[in-house]
Design goal:
Layout lengths: L1 H4 L3 H16 L3 E8 L5 E7 L3 H21 L11 H22 L5 H43 L1
Antiparallel strand pairs: 1-2
Length: 153
């Protein structure tokens, strides 16, 4: 439990918003209106699992898995890959796909826009982690450059 408390805020946001966004795909994202002429109009609720929803679910799972591997496990991952940037790019993709899905779905429900908020929260959490990693890298560069200057003087 202490390990979860020590996580950065961005990671906590990703670990909460990601699974909630994935589970939201099982809820109603749109309501189709089918006109049966004189018999009336039927309203059919549709969940989020269409082509865009499948892409959204896959991207969401990949973001959450990468964050878990980076922050909660001892798995050795390549230091040559900027993992925070990869996670930020994938989470931005989640946000873009969620926006496109809401725009292209006919008769999107009001709750689907709340699910869009979860995608934005996921992207914001990834951004917070990316910004923290950039600040740490800049701090290391400054310390290294100061050492070189002072050692030559």
């Amino acid at each position: 439990m202490q390990k979860l408390r020590d996580l950065p805020t961005g990671t906590k946001l990703v670990l909460v918003a990601g699974p909630l966004l994935f589970l939201s795909l099982f809820f109603d994202w749109q309501t189709l209106h089918v006109d049966y002429g004189p018999a009336g109009i039927a309203k059919l609720p549709q969940d989020g699992w269409d082509a865009w929803g499948l892409l959204l679910g896959g991207l969401t799972i990949s973001v959450v898995v990468l964050v878990v591997l980076r922050r909660l496990t001892e798995v050795e991952m390549s230091e040559d890959v900027p993992w925070e940037t990869v996670i930020l790019g994938l989470s931005a993709g989640v946000l873009v796909v969620a926006v496109v899905k809401n725009l292209l779905d006919a008769y999107s429900t009001w709750i689907s826009y709340g699910f869009l908020g979860l995608a934005a929260l996921l992207a914001f959490g990834a951004y917070l982690d990316w910004a923290a990693a950039r600040r740490e890298a800049r701090g290391e560069l400054r310390r290294r450059s100061r050492r070189r200057v002072s050692s030559t003087a």
